[in-house]
Amino acid sequence: MHSNEMLHCAIIALHSFDFEYYEIAKSYEDIFAMLDSGTFPIYKEKYIVGYFGNKLMYLESNGWKGMPSTQDLFKMENWLVC
User: Fold this and answer.
1) 37 with 46: CB under 8 angstroms?
2) Total domains in the fold of the chain
3) Residue 14, domain extent
4) Distance CA 69, CA 8 (A)
5) 56 within 8 A of 36, measured Cβ to Cβ
6) What is the pTM of this model?
7) 45, 55, 54, 62: which is closest to 10 by C-alpha?
8) Strands 55-60 and 47-52
């Protein structure tokens, strides 16, 4: 993960709140297309999301954590994709 340029770009965008290249997801296909291509969507302008071992994971300061299935998870306005 340390040499993953796509992850580094997502981290920089998130921490600088520079979402110039991101837009609100129109459908779930947008989110999974990013995950399948090795890029990282952003959830609630707060978390970088990855897909590992058939699990959605979000990045926190102390590592990747499993993403709970809440009602907010299914709202498209909570997802930013590029």
Assistant:
1) no
2) 1
3) 5-81
4) 26
5) no
6) 0.90
7) 45
8) antiparallel
Per DSSP, the residues of 41-54 read -EETTTEEEEEETT
Question: How far is Cα 40 from Cα 80, in angstroms, rounded to an integer?
Answer: 9
Q: Are 64 and 57 in contact (CB under 8 A)?
A: yes
The pLDDT of residue 70 is 94
List the structure tokens of 56. 């959605």
How sure is the predictor about 1, in pLDDT bands with cuts at 50, 70 and 90? Answer: low
pLDDT tens, residue by residue, 2-20: 689 999 999 999 999 999 9
Closest among 51, 42, 44, 47 to 22, alpha carbons compared: 42
